[in-house]
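Researcher: Next sequence.
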Amino acid sequence: MASMAEQLAANVNFAAFSKATELKQRIWFALGCLIVYRFGTYIPLPGIDPVVMSQIFEQNAGGIMGMFNMFAGGALERMSIFALGILPYISASIIMQLMTAVSPTIEQLKKEGESGRKTINQYTRYLTVLLAAFQGYGLAVGLEAMSGPGGGAVLDPGWYFRVVTVITIVGGTMFLMWLGEQITARGIGNGISLIIFTGIIASLPSALASTLELGRTGAISTFLIIFLFIMCVAVIAFIVFMERAQRRILVQYPKRQQGNRMFGGESSHLPLKINVSGVIPPIFASSLLLMPATLASFGGAGGPEWLAQVTALLGRGQPLFLLLFIGLIIFFAFFYTSIVFNPQDTAENLRKHGGFIPGIRPGQRTAEYFDYVLTRLTTVGALYLSAVCILPEILISQYAVPFYFGGTSLLIVVSVTMDTTAQVQSHLIAHQYEGLIKKSRLRGARR
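Model: Next structure:
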């Protein structure tokens, strides 16, 4: 079966793609949704002076606002209806997953299957509304305190502006959440990841142009630009290697006799990725770091002194920022891995199907062995994620390179591209399997 799948994967070509009507419809649907998202990032909030806002962003683009703008796909720079992007939904998902580990009620809902998952998703939506409303109000108040060389960022500050901003921001966030769910269900790939991916990719040309402009004006040397591009290629190759790497655990199935025939006695492998958690830990860590830092940066010049201290301590490249970033990445790597892979359940399923690991007793010993292997794999994966995300951050803070060349953005772009390509290939293989089944049925009917 494995050899047949590999042969079909090797034969996937444009001819097979042209015959896969459902796959083409899914791709066009996903592209259409992403185009709608990009149009929305150019619709400004009511009551904002775009010229002053552009001046303010140019002054603060080197700080935490630049990172927030990357995840929002440039919507923050233009202060559009999607200014918060999909981050409130990601924050709500983090909170709900943490609640799964500490709340017996939420944990029981998770075990109920599809109905429980729908209930948890509904709670996540409600929490997204609350977070978006809270952050939207903080954004409105912060905008009223902002001013540039051309005057204030808000044309008519007051409660009317705040209410309109909160309603618009919440509506934009909920629309993006719905759009991501539609892409996941009716398109191709993970909708939320694709929305973040699209925002980063859309800003790459301007980031590349600004980097070359820095080299032309002499702000950074030509040697440094060449080194940065070589580093990007090396980081991408390293990400691909680590995301493809697996630890294969040998699983043996015993022989059994039915009548005069012998069945079983086969061996297979249980593949465990080195980075089981994928791109989730850096996204979760970034979103959590952005929440307090965003409130601090929107406090304005007349805000409390502690807000200014928080802004300084959580600046790009600062030791506290780097330590918190590494700590959150490691925490979420272990936490998310514990959610997606349960050693007890896997060992129990192997025992029910008669499978066992050579040299390991079925049951509790197998679960302990899985936990042993997974802990070490997750440690390597967490260190890999930390290195990819932190090392470019240090270079960025030292040489003022655009944020899009950071490790987090490269990790998101490469991982989402690999996952989406794998899904496209799976659809093509499934389509070819269906074609083979139909041909065999037609031949059987003719006979």
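Model: Confidence is low (pLDDT under 50) at residues 1-12. The chain has one domain: 2-200+224-437.
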